[in-house]
Amino acid sequence: MKQSPEDSLLDFIFDQLDPFTIPELLRFLGESVTAATCRSAEQYLEHNHLAYEFPDEPGFEKEWISRAGLFTDRSVLIVPGKDEIAAGVFIPGSRCVPFCNPSLLPHELTFYLGDQELPRKQIRVTPEDAYKQYDLFGEEYIPQYLSLDNEENAAIFSSTEYEDPDFFYINAVDMGDFYWKSGFKPGDRIAATLVDWVEGIFILDLVSASTIVPEREAKWKAALERNLASSFKNIGAAGSMDEQLAYAYFLGGDSMFSLHATEVSHALRNSSVIAFEPYGVETRLWFKDQTVPPPDRWTISMVSLPASLFEEALVQLGLPVSIRVFDSYVLDSLYRRETDCSLLLDRLIPVRLTDNAFCIPVIERAAASRLKELQKTYNIFADNETGRLRTRFIALHSELTRFIFMLRDTGLLPGTMPEQGAVILAQIMAHTISALENLDFPVSDNPGDIDNLWLSVEGMEESFFEIKTVINEALPELLKQRFTIVKKESPDERV
Fold first, then answer.
1. Are 97 and 136 in contact (CB under 8 A)?
2. Rounded mean pLDDT of 394-418?
3. 327-343 burial string, b = 16+ CB within 10 Å, else e?
4. Residue 442, preceding bond cis, omega within 30 degrees?
5. Which three-class secondary structure string do you get for the chain?
6. How far apart are CA 153 and CA 280, in angstroms?
7. Cα separation of 157 and 146, whole Å?
8. Is the CB of residue 67 less than 8 Å from the CB of residue 246?
9. Region 258-271 average pLDDT
10. C-alpha–C-alpha distance, residues 125 and 180, integer Å
11. In this structure, how many other beta carbons lie within 10 angstroms of the beta carbon of residue 167?
């Protein structure tokens, strides 16, 4: 199968450590360099936070830096706790955020002391001991990260339905020799220097507490707060705390990469300016005791690099559908034993879209063609368990699309929704898309992932039902208020 433009772009971004221009990227992709293709590539990079644009310099072409280029050969500072030192370990958790590749789990990172890879050893811990080391992932995700750390945890967290267990296990980095031989003591720090962003490889060094200048540490903390504030202004809540922090480091430049720094989460927990704040069903960094604002418009479409008229049609209609999600719809239709694509299209496009209606025949032809193509190798017996789960996610995705488009068509803004409703809907949609892509295009064959996805779809269905009920109950009054405001502002009424 021909590699998609997105996959080719990732190849470029992951390998490119030096600043680059958009024309260089397009030429690598084999695309023509036009104003339209340049803007399309820029939007894709901005939306997915894969790279950052340097400020314009007169007389020079605009340059970008990838996240790999931004953080490679840079050091993140880690402060092991007394319990870790006593046990001779270091728990990675989220402490390498935002330096590491966000697609890697903590137990997939590799740490070296000189040219020696440090082994892992499993330790038993309690939520009180360990959760604080994972807080940059957001407390809502900590049980999921831990359940993926090892087989024991998968069983423990599954049995409690991801509520806090009394204890669990972590594959910690064995630091025994390092601590004892270096005379490491509480207050000392570890400089973890990133040498391979794609694979998540770090080299560790000792930073003695005696070398830390308090005034320079305070200066670094102020820079962190200042650059996070600028990050909030530029990208808002973004898609995660990882994205917020990565952009703050880009904005801060060299001032953020100081060996007089401390752990990011330590600094934030003691900040009087920035805090961990709720954002829908997730957590974001924001100004302390302030509500994270919702997006200013309804946007659920996928930002992509269209490789065909069909993909362009999906983008034009604003549908939250990637190529992989589209294939999931087709596989679902085969699982349902449907003989044509009409019902598939009803689920894929659950609302009447008059704008860009010329796109719909393009999607219809693509659906019929793909249905015929996948039918040749489809085995309903092998797809039984996955098929039942996929059908649940497809139904949720379709109903979410219908409901969000309905709210958009009322003219009400996302910020008017009660209980951060617009934010929660967008988050459920993002998780549903991710689940569909992981279900049919898994990165591993781990059977436990199916069990996790069953729990996930049940939780998301419940969350969707609850927030949909809240919004529907508030909708008549919201529409009434909107009508009153519009009527008062009508030019005809003012004459």
1. yes
2. 95
3. bbbbbbbbbeeeeebee
4. no
5. CCCCHHHHHHHHHHHCCCCECHHHHHHHHCCCCCHHHHHHHHHHHHHHCCEEECCCCCCCCCCEEEHHHHHCCCEEEECCCHHHHHHCEECCCCCCCCCCCCCCCHHHCEEEECCEECCEEEEEECHHHHHHHHHHHCCCCHHHHHHCCCHHHHHHHHHCCCCCCCCEEEEEEECHHHHHHHCCCCCCEEEEEEEECCCCEEEEEEECHHHCCHHHHHHHHHHHHHHHHHHHHHHCCCCCHHHHHHHHHHHHHHHHCCCCCCCHHHHHHCCCCEEEEEECCEEEEEECCCCCCCCCCCCCCCCCCCCCHHHHHHHHHCCCCCHHHHHHHHHHHHHCCCCCCHHHHHHHCCCCCCCCCCHHHHHHHHHHHHHHHHHCCCCCCCCHHHHHHHHHHHHHHHHHHHHHHHHHHCCCCHHHCHHHHHHHHHHHHHHHHHHHHHHHCCCCCCCHHHHHHHHHHHHHHHHHHHHHHHHHHHHHHHHHHHHHHHHHHCHHHHC
6. 27
7. 8
8. yes
9. 95
10. 22
11. 12
- The model's confidence at residue 416, banded by pLDDT at 50, 70 and 90, is very high
**Phi-psi category of 186—alpha, beta or left, where left has phi over 0 and alpha has psi -120 to 50?**
beta
Identity of the residue numbered 130: A
Please check the confidence at residue 491 and state whether its pLDDT lies above 60.
no
In which residue are the tokens 């830096």 written?
65
Closest CA to 162 of 464, 453, 472, 486: 453
Instruction: List, in order, residues 6 or more apart from 429 with CB less than 8 Å away.
Output: 300, 320, 397, 400, 401, 404
Q: Kindly calculate the radius of gyration of the chain based on its CA atoms and give it in whole angstroms.
A: 25
**Greatest extent of the chain over all pairs of C-alpha atoms, in Å:** 85
Q: Closest Cα partner for 197 from 29, 305, 25, 50?
A: 50
Region 107-136: mean pLDDT is 95
Amino acid (1-letter code) at residue 226 = R
Q: Which two tokens stand for residue 361?
A: 């025949």
Q: Over the stretch 206-248, which tens digit does the pLDDT of each residue have?
A: 999 999 999 999 999 999 999 999 999 999 999 999 999 999 9
Tokens read off for 316: 């034009």
Which tokens hold the place of 49?
Answer: 């936070």
Q: Count of alpha carbons within 13 Å of 254, Cβ hemisphere only?
A: 0
Amino acid at 80: P
Structure tokens at 125: 């811990």
Pairing type for strands 120-125 and 89-90 reads unpaired
Please determine, for residue 493, whether its predicted confidence score (pLDDT) is greater than 70: no
Question: How far apart, in whole angstroms, are the C-alpha atoms of residue 243 and residue 14?
Answer: 16
- Within 10 angstroms of residue 376's Cβ, the number of other Cβ atoms is 6
pLDDT tens, residue by residue, 135-164: 999 999 999 899 999 989 988 988 777 788
